[in-house]
């Protein structure tokens, strides 16, 4: 089980960015889920960006937390964006059939620079 650090910041355009670093597994997803849900319900941003640039590992629990955030964002009318997933994370989302739901390109090399 690993460690993860989540920080939340507001961009100049009003979007909320949740920067995630480390591993997303059973030991760490509770903090991610809490950060996503509390920010969505408390701030109600137009756009929430989850930056996965420095996520080194993600298992099914991490995927579940992202899906929870995605669903909660839809309920509040917030656009939910995954930014810069690593090749490993992108592969996990593609294998589970969720890359398209999150609006990620099918080629993981394209996902590195994808910014909607």
TrEMBL record:
Residues 5-116 form the STAS domain. CDD domains: STAS_anti-anti-sigma_factors. GO terms for molecular function: anti-sigma factor antagonist activity. InterPro entries: Anti-sigma_ant, STAS_dom, STAS_dom_sf. Coiled coil: none annotated. Belongs to the anti-sigma-factor antagonist family. This is Anti-sigma factor antagonist. It comes from Mangrovihabitans endophyticus. The lineage of its organism: Bacteria, Bacillati, Actinomycetota, Actinomycetes, Micromonosporales.
